[in-house]
Design brief:
Largest sheet: 2 strands, antiparallel
CATH architecture of the largest domain: Orthogonal Bundle
CATH class of the largest domain: Mainly Alpha
Distance between the termini: 32 Å
Helix content: 25-40%
Number of strands: 2
Number of domains: 2
Shape: globular
Number of helices: 9
């Protein structure tokens, strides 16, 4: 079961040591931040998936055991996105068991760097380099972006990059592609 804890900026200030409170109060954003607790099992109902949005960043994965489809562990640079990826998977109704394959694709595409930009392939030569965690090009991003977020200025926002990329994979290849990724058949998509 996934649980979320909502902390407002004011709650963070109240929980901070007295010496830090004034600086946190001045720097505190006016948005609500969420901390997700990682699920301990791959057998989740979609209502138990974590929740995320465009403000969600990387976090420590403490959920079920993640093994790379080809064996071994994922680098921390990749697993730090697992909670966010799982949240987006929930929005697309993708089974949690496919998380390792999607993380393997992130490892292959960007190494876990949300600012990665491919400047050497045919897309880059044509003026549309692939960007972000799942290396999506601007026209594809715009076509598959979450409604209301189609501007390419959001293309490297981790949540929106993952959202558009998974939406594209589902539309182009179907959810069976995630099964192939889980078997270690990660290739450009």
């Amino acid at each position: 079961m996934t649980r979320s804890l909502r902390l407002t900026a004011a709650a963070l200030v109240l929980a901070a040591p007295v010496a830090l409170a004034p600086s946190l109060a001045q720097a505190a954003p006016a948005v609500t931040m969420e901390r997700q607790l990682s699920p301990q099992t791959k057998n989740l109902s979609f209502s138990d998936y974590p929740v995320a949005d465009f403000r969600t960043r990387d976090s420590v994965w403490r959920g079920f055991r993640l093994r790379h489809p080809e064996g071994g562990r994922f680098p921390t640079q990749v697993t730090r996105w697992a909670n966010l990826v799982l949240a987006v998977m929930g929005e697309h109704r993708i089974a949690a068991r496919y998380l390792p394959g999607i993380l393997a694709q992130i490892q292959q595409e960007s190494g876990g760097d949300p600012y990665a930009t491919n400047r050497w392939d045919s897309n880059a030569a044509a003026g549309t380099p692939s960007k972000g965690l799942l290396q999506i090009i601007a026209p594809t991003y715009r076509a598959y972006a979450k409604p209301g977020w189609r501007s390419t200025r959001y293309q490297i926002t981790p949540y929106l990059n993952i959202w558009a990329s998974l939406n594209y994979v589902i539309d182009r290849y179907g959810k069976r592609k995630f099964k192939l990724w889980n078997k270690g058949q990660n290739q450009g998509y």
